[in-house]
Specification:
Layout (H helix, E strand, L loop, with lengths): L1 H8 L4 H5 L2 H20 L15 H13 L6 H14 L5 H22 L13 H28 L5 H31 L8 H19 L5 H4 L4 H34 L3 H77 L4 H31 L5 E3 L1 H19 L2 E6 L6 E3 L1 H21 L6 E8 L4 E8 L6 H6 L15 H11 L4 E6 L2 E9 L3 H7 L1
Parallel strand pairs: 2-4
Antiparallel strand pairs: 1-3, 4-5, 5-7, 6-7
Helix pairs in contact: 1-4, 3-4, 3-5, 4-6, 4-8, 5-6, 6-7, 7-8, 8-11, 8-12, 9-11, 11-12, 12-13, 14-15, 15-17
Length: 544
């Protein structure tokens, strides 16, 4: 980020970049902003040389280098001297002023230069917890060093007594670290994310709550002021959870400005001001920590949604190929039967046999067309043409279409039905196709296993909750354990020439009817069962 910013400002050696128009404009805006912030925050100064409880100019200095690069570090030596001249009238001797300016510029210049180093991998947008932790670590450590050097300078120069150095150091450090903690993340958010707390009734309510908390802190008796301060944690935490890092940065600035203004007009003493700012530092750390965690979670969720949308698009692009394979699988059976009947008609010895075979050819072709239409509606539109039907009739009709194939494989079929089965409301063609697929799969499995006594049992019984259980059993080898786990997934098959779509389509059809399809193996063979819901009295009345 920093390297790109430097390149955008100007090319060539550092002196050439420093003299570029863009660089000078940014530097001028920084100097004006630094002096303005120093003037606005010059409240409750400590001693005659003016150590204030909040130093937002330091936060501006951090933001300048983090956003635009190391070449702006020299201006960190200029701004403190300029602000002292404009706001305080250079209260210290010129030598001490120059030394103090060098301490501030060197301390914060080194900290920000380290952050923008490529080895540190700091992200100015604070998109990760690591970047926020790096910023806070640099802020705390650099302000501690600058505070120690600055106060030490004043003590050595005889400007500050040793007895007052502790109080001065605490106020100076709190003001500096609050300046970075509150203002720098806000400026980074504005520059990198173009976001602030958007106007809304919720945002207005949060600001009103902050104003109410300020009134409670400074309007109640002194005894309860510091306890009531914890009211600020409510709006800050709420904002961090609701709006993430961007929102909480905005509300922290509003809270800090309100707090400094209230302390100024309430004429708090130095000790109270420092205590309030220390609490504000804890509040800021808490809000920023929650905010960055929420922002990371929101980005993760957005990325997951984008990934899901990309996956959905890929699946839609693949649907055409899968649908073509599904059609090939489903119409292969009736077309194969039609071809067999056509050969039978061609070689028939008499006219009656040829006529019967021709009728079966037409029936199978019409069924193939109906399967195509119904399967298209099921997969593309999710529609089905339902009617009330009896389960024994569905099974009988389906087995009629399997008769030739069962004979060819030498498989015996048995039907076991519960005598009290109610009617069902289903798409007849689709349910018949499920039964046909299951019976033919069983017959083919028996044939491939070389069973001479192959047997398929089609059974139906009344289950629980008005569900009818239809099952197809065989006495073959059953499913392999590895295949059993994925048997109803698309393109999973045990047949050398199979497409692996039979069980997958059967499951889709049954689930579209509100039932479930289950697959299992027993010591006696494979078992495939599915459930259908019994027709309601209203559905039976409509059908009648």
């Amino acid at each position: 980020m920093a390297e790109r910013s430097w390149a955008a400002i100007g090319m060539g050696p550092p002196p050439a970049r420093w003299l570029s128009g863009r660089h000078l404009k940014i530097a001028a805006a920084y100097l004006v902003g630094y002096a303005a912030l120093d003037w606005l925050s010059y409240v409750h100064p400590f001693a005659w040389f003016g150590i204030t409880p909040w130093n937002p100019p330091t936060g501006l200095s951090f933001a300048l280098v983090l956003l635009f690069g190391r070449e702006f570090v020299p201006w960190l030596f200029v701004a403190p001297m300029l602000a002292d001249a404009v706001v305080r009238g250079l209260p210290l001797p010129i030598g001490i002023e120059l030394a103090a300016t060098a301490i501030i510029g060197a301390g914060y210049g080194a900290a920000t230069s380290l952050l923008v180093s490529p080895r540190v991998a700091f992200d100015p947008s604070l998109a990760t917890r690591q970047s926020l932790l790096l910023l806070l670590t640099a802020a705390v450590s650099s302000t501690v060093l600058v505070t120690a050097a600055y106060v030490g300078l004043l003590v050595i120069a005889g400007i500050l007594s040793l007895a007052d150095s502790g109080a001065a150091a605490l106020r100076f450090w709190v003001g500096e670290v609050i300046g970075v903690t509150v203002l720098t993340p806000f400026l980074l958010m504005l520059a990198t994310r173009r976001w602030a707390l958007r106007p809304s009734w919720e945002a207005f309510g949060l600001i009103v709550f902050v104003a109410g908390a300020l009134w409670a802190v400074f309007g109640l008796a002194d005894t309860f002021r510091f306890q009531v301060f914890y009211l600020f944690f409510l709006p800050i935490t709420w904002t961090a959870v609701r709006f993430g890092l961007e929102g909480v940065c905005s509300l922290l600035v509003i809270t800090q400005v309100g707090l400094v203004g209230a302390m100024h007009f309430a004429e708090q003493d130095a000790a109270n001001v420092t205590a309030y700012q220390a609490l504000m530092f804890v509040l800021a750390i808490t809000g920023l920590a929650i905010g960055v965690l929420v922002s990371e979670q929101q980005r993760t969720q957005r990325q997951l949604r984008l990934n899901q949308e990309a996956l959905d698009r890929a699946l839609r692009l693949r649907t055409m190929g899968e649908f073509s394979a599904a059609l090939a699988h489903e119409i292969n059976q009736p077309l194969t039967a039609a071809a067999n009947y056509a050969r039978l008609a061609h070689t028939a010895a008499d006219l009656a046999s040829a006529t019967q075979a021709s009728k079966r050819v037409i029936s199978q072709i019409e069924r193939a067309a109906e399967v195509i239409r119904r399967l298209r509606d099921l997969i593309r539109l999710g529609r089905s043409e339902t009617s009330v039907a009896l389960v024994p009739e569905l099974i009988e009709e389906a087995l009629a279409f399997c008769h030739t194939e069962l004979e060819r494989h030498g498989v015996d079929v048995q039907v076991r039905l519960d005598g009290t089965l109610p009617a069902v409301s289903v798409d007849v063609v689709q349910i018949e196709q499920v039964i046909i697929n299951l019976v033919r799969n069983a017959a083919e499995a028996l044939s491939e296993a070389g069973r001479q006594d192959g047997r398929v049992i089609v059974e139906a019984e009344l289950g629980s909750e008005s569900m009818i259980v239809v099952g197809v059993r065989d006495n073959g080898p059953g499913f392999d354990p590895g295949v059993l786990e994925r048997a109803s997934a698309p393109f999973i098959t045990t047949k050398e020439e199979g497409l692996g779509l039979g069980l997958s389509l059967a499951r889709s059809i049954i689930e579209a009817h509100g039932g479930r399809l289950s697959i299992s193996s027993t010591p006696h063979g494979a078992v495939v069962q599915f459930t259908l819901r019994a027709a309601t009295s209203a559905q039976r009345e409509v059908a009648s």
